[in-house]
């Protein structure tokens, strides 16, 4: 990984776990914590400048995704950090802004998740969905649409795929690291 793609903001450097993969074209700036086995794919931009970004173990952030946060203010004293749990798959070209994602979540390609959103564990968000500010997506459901709507409970095979997707990306990142 090149030294220029992981850089500080106001003296705070990203904190990197073990066995991670960060593509050379990705950019991580500031107060960002990556847990073990995280993969950050080409053209990801993550900016932990006005708040923090935390990414859990075995999570993958796919090509072209943008991760950012909400600054602290008098109306929102804590702002909105970006918190992503373990075993999360963030599909290509997603935008995550000041939201909280639990564990075993799949965010479909091109989805946008806005400030103050809470996504509980074991959720599938369909491609192209827009999750408006301050919405909570409860565990165990498929959500799709603009704005997003709860469609139905996850099938057993879909719930199993949430964890398998993360495992697949850990294996892929290990292949990249061995090159």
From TrEMBL:
<dbReference type="InterPro" id="IPR011004">
    <property type="entry name" value="Trimer_LpxA-like_sf"/>
</dbReference>
<dbReference type="InterPro" id="IPR001451">
    <property type="entry name" value="Hexapep"/>
</dbReference>
<dbReference type="InterPro" id="IPR050484">
    <property type="entry name" value="Transf_Hexapept/Carb_Anhydrase"/>
</dbReference>
<protein>
    <submittedName>
        <fullName>Gamma carbonic anhydrase family protein</fullName>
    </submittedName>
</protein>
<dbReference type="Pfam" id="PF14602">
    <property type="entry name" value="Hexapep_2"/>
</dbReference>
<dbReference type="InterPro" id="IPR047324">
    <property type="entry name" value="LbH_gamma_CA-like"/>
</dbReference>
């Amino acid at each position: 990984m090149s030294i220029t793609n992981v850089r500080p903001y106001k003296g705070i450097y990203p904190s990197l776990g073990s066995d991670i993969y960060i593509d050379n074209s990705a950019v991580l700036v500031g107060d960002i914590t990556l847990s073990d086995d995280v993969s950050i794919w080409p053209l990801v931009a993550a900016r932990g400048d006005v708040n923090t970004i935390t990414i859990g173990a075995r999570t993958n952030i796919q090509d072209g995704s943008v991760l950012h946060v909400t600054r602290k203010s008098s109306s929102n004293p804590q702002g909105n950090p970006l918190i992503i749990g373990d075993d999360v798959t963030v599909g290509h070209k997603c935008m995550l802004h000041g939201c909280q994602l639990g564990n075993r979540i799949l965010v479909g390609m091109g989805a946008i998740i806005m400030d103050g959103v809470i996504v509980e564990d074991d959720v599938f968000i369909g491609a192209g969905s827009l999750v408006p500010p301050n919405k909570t997506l409860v565990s165990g459901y498929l959500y799709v649409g603009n704005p997003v709507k709860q469609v139905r409970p996850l099938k057993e095979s879909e719930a199993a795929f949430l964890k398998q997707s993360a495992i697949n990306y850990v294996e892929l990142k290990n292949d990249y690291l061995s090159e």
